[in-house]
């Protein structure tokens, strides 16, 4: 019997690859928790695309409430930071903490994130935060760097095959500004 796991999902392209990999060893429930995504229309589009992946890979999806105000409050002191700076670490911690708490609420003993598929995400930081939160909540965190062994390229291929929207920025207002300036 596979261990039940709550997988934080940031977007459909990352989920298409990473959830499939996690399903090899775990009974995966997805968790769409992204108060960082801006504007709200972008949030809706990414959620809609994630629902496509939910159907394609046959896993249940739990959707967290969309409360961007909490994210803006947590990251406001770091709004001048570049992408991949300290602001991103705060963002990772916020979303992974919500994931760990939801896993515990649902009685799931393990959690993970698909974010490490992206070359823009720092897998070492994600894994360090996840391990700390696992200790805090009495859970297991699945340490991974899904971009390794061609994971990012495979996510691009799966996105094409499934006809998924691939965003051109991290999701937050600040990365959107950085990417489009």
Helix and strand topology:
Blueprint: E1 3-9, H1 12-23, E2 26-32, H2 40-57, E3 61-63, H3 68-75, H4 86-106, E4 110-113, H5 123-137, E5 140-141, H6 151-162, H7 173-180
Parallel strand pairs: 1-2, 1-4, 2-3, 4-5
Helix pairs in contact: 1-2, 1-6, 4-5
What does this structure look like?
By secondary structure, the protein is of the alpha/beta class. Helices cover 52% and strands 13% of the residues. It is built from 7 helices and 5 strands, in the order βαβαβααβαβαα. Helix 1 runs parallel beside helix 2 (40-57) and helix 4 (86-106) runs parallel beside helix 5.
Question: Key features?
Answer:
globular; five-stranded parallel sheet; Rossmann fold
Q: Please report the first level of CATH classification, the CATH class.
A: Alpha Beta
Query: What is the CA–CA distance across the termini?
Result: 50 Å
Number of strands: 5
Helix/sheet category:
alpha/beta
H and E order = EHEHEHHEHEHH
Strand order of the largest sheet: 3-2-1-4-5
């Amino acid at each position: 019997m596979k261990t039940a796991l709550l997988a934080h999902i940031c977007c459909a392209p990352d989920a298409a690859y990473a959830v499939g990999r996690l399903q090899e060893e775990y009974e995966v429930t997805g968790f769409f928790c992204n108060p960082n995504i801006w504007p709200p229309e972008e949030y809706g589009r990414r959620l809609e695309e994630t629902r496509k992946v939910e159907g394609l890979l046959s896993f249940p999806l739990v959707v967290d409430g969309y409360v961007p105000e909490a994210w803006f409050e947590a990251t406001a002191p770091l709004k001048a930071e570049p992408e991949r700076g300290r602001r991103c670490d705060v963002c990772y911690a916020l979303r992974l903490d919500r994931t760990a708490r939801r896993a515990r609420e649902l009685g799931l003993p393990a959690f993970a994130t698909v974010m490490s598929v992206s070359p823009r995400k720092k897998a070492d930081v994600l894994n360090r935060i996840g391990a700390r939160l696992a200790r805090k909540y009495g859970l297991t965190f699945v340490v991974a760097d899904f971009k390794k062994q061609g994971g990012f390229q495979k996510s691009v291929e799966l996105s094409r095959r499934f006809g998924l929207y691939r965003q051109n920025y991290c999701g937050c207002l600040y990365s959107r500004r950085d990417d489009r300036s």
